[in-house]
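User: hey, got a sec? need YeeE/YedE family protein folded
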Amino acid sequence: MIDLVYLSGGKAGLLGLLVGALLGGAARMGDFCTLAALETAMLGRDYRQLHIWGIALGVAILATALADAAGLIAIGHSIYHAIAWNPLASIGGGLLFGYGMAMAGNCGFGALLRAGSGDIRSVIIVAALGISSYFTLSGPLGPLRDLVFPQQPAAGPGGIANDLAGWTGLPPLGFALAIGAVLIVAGLRHPRVAGSAVTIACAAVVGLSVTLGFVGTALLSEGGLAANTIEGPSFTVPVGRTILYLMTATGMLPSFSVGVVFGTFAGAAMVSVWRHSFRWEACDDPRELGRQLFGAVLMGIGGVIAMGCTIGQGLTGFATLAWSGPVTLAAIAAGAMGGLLQLVRGDLI
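Assistant: Yep! Here you go:
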């Protein structure tokens, strides 16, 4: 008799591989990068990549809200709503992650994209992030994290749309559609974005990959023995899971999150080869490598505390309109901007 858990795991891994390939390939093709968006806006007054981010986020919110309304998913089954929101964890973890992102020169997702383009430094950053995430999740820092940032089940439905609906009496779906539409329209206001069909399409695919993950994992959850849950792309703890899988998972099939990590790397690599932009790169400055490793460790710790990264909270969590999404994303942006200013001033030790 076929083991249903084993079969479900195989399907979940393939689903993750597909979602990751779409996400990684579209991000690489469409210049979707969180740190680059913040850096070009802050230092160069170029807001093009922020507008791309807005389109991707708007599409993710719209598609996720519609999937929830159609009964394809249940947003309340995601970790962003099933676990009670801890504002201190979102702010503290986000600031730590953002500062580490500036020091490392990329977030975990961005490092995977660069690794797929031949950047060996990014492979080291990804490894350090993954190890530090598990060090914080279930390793020596786990008890301290539980003590300072405890996670409790949510008391009931919450989130931005539900709270606004409760305050006004209007339907939550209307608020979700309005927020998503505003973000898309705002993103399209940049002339260089609006004038590029490829950029718009890539941003849309980035957003849709989140909803595809939600819908796919919901269907697998209903048809298997797994708990009834939905999952989208994230790149903190899943990177640690991928490292564990590579070291210990003999005879086991990858989970959804591990498949996403593999798929993102593969998608970025395929686009880089197709665009003839694949180049082997290494770090010849030990001080720079040390700073990047330090930043990767901070990202791993901060991402676990905040329960997500630029993608895990900033895109996936925000797509469900959980309060943790925008608050964590804002904290990440603030931490990154502080780190970038420090790098520009050159006052790092």
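Quick note: Confidence is low (pLDDT under 50) at residues 1-7. Let me know if you need anything else on YeeE/YedE family protein.
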